[in-house]
Amino acid sequence: MTPAARSQAAIELLDAIIAAAREGGAAADTLIARYFATRRYAGSKDRRAVRELVYAAIRRCGERPDSGRSALVSLADADPALAASFDGSGFGPAPIAVDEPRAAAGVAPAWLVKALRRSAVEVAALSALVDRAPLDLRVNRLKATRDAVAATIPGAAASRFAPDGLRVPSGTAVEALPAYAEGAVEVQDEGSQIVGSAIGAMPGERLVDLCAGAGGKTLALAAAMADRGAILACDTDRGRLSRLPPRAERAGATIIETRLLDPQREAAALADWQGAADGALIDAPCSGTGTWRRNPEARWRLTPARLDRLAATQAHVLDIGAALVRPGGRLVYIVCSLLDAEGPDQVAAFVARHPGWSVDPLALPAGRAHRDGVRLDPAHDGTDGFFVARLLAPC
Length: 395
Description:
Elements lengths: L2 H21 L4 H10 L6 H17 L7 H9 L3 H5 L25 H9 L4 H4 L8 E5 L6 H5 L6 E2 L6 E4 L9 H4 L3 E3 L2 H7 L9 E4 L6 H9 L5 E6 L2 H4 L2 H8 L4 E5 L5 H4 L7 E7 L20 H21 E11 L8 H10 L4 E3 L7 E3 L2 E4 L1 H4 L4 E7 L3
Parallel strand pairs: 5-6, 5-8, 6-7, 8-9
Antiparallel strand pairs: 1-3, 1-4, 2-3, 9-13, 10-13, 11-12, 12-13
Helix pairs in contact: 1-2, 1-3, 1-4, 3-4
């Protein structure tokens, strides 16, 4: 593909991504994969170059652009080589007019920037929310040590904070690594490893991972428990939860039971665990403002109404989790969001609804205290953004 053809492909993809963000369609990665599946003539270098153009344009535009062309023109204003590719050739975009619309540069839609600032996110830290994310692995201590695995991966280095974490070069083909095939590593952001450890899992305990998804934190719990005890991993998404059993088998984790839940009927499905768990971990559905580095177009999808719906879901799963915990047990609440409405405000509302429950202060290797919990953010910690709090049930 010529540079002009690459630019035209980026514009077409950006149009599709903008429409999907507006209409609730597929994620950018999925749309890019579909696009090139029907264009076999594009080589690996072409695909990589177009992908980089697309994501550079997405990261630059805070508000959702009107069109893919306006997004790429905005990027081209700071890149003469890219601007030159708008040459009007057979496979390229038309030349850029001086007065044609440009998408505005920014970190996020204005209403979200205001919400982040109200949530005490520093102005200087905002741009880090859309930087490129590093690639982190968690070493499975059931199978290997961090030093042993690091020696087999070129460029791997111990994470700054997570005791089982490795940071590897971006682009590393993780699934092709022998350590991955052997179940010795899983892809997991260092921040995710740290907040998941807040539950303090111990061998022999009975724990619930209430919003387990594909089980990244569940597997980390099993390793921390030395595969002794019991973990109930639950979710309402059959597709995501179905990925956990094969991952657990590869990891050598035998103490995990998966259970698919029916939304709004969770209590009945969990009756056998009522008041029986030593701890429950709730990695709640959230806006994902802390993961924009990985999914930058997500900030174009979020609306105040969707944020309100997410907050209602978070309160609901907190109440479900509370009923599972034994007297004196612990409940850990996690969101990959930096918005107070999803973090400390939820904790305060929970304590108000549940007399006798108390906040248990956390001492984590990263992050900073934020009201009744700890917050990690890309600028301060080099991780995805998270809020985590630990609550204790009355005895």
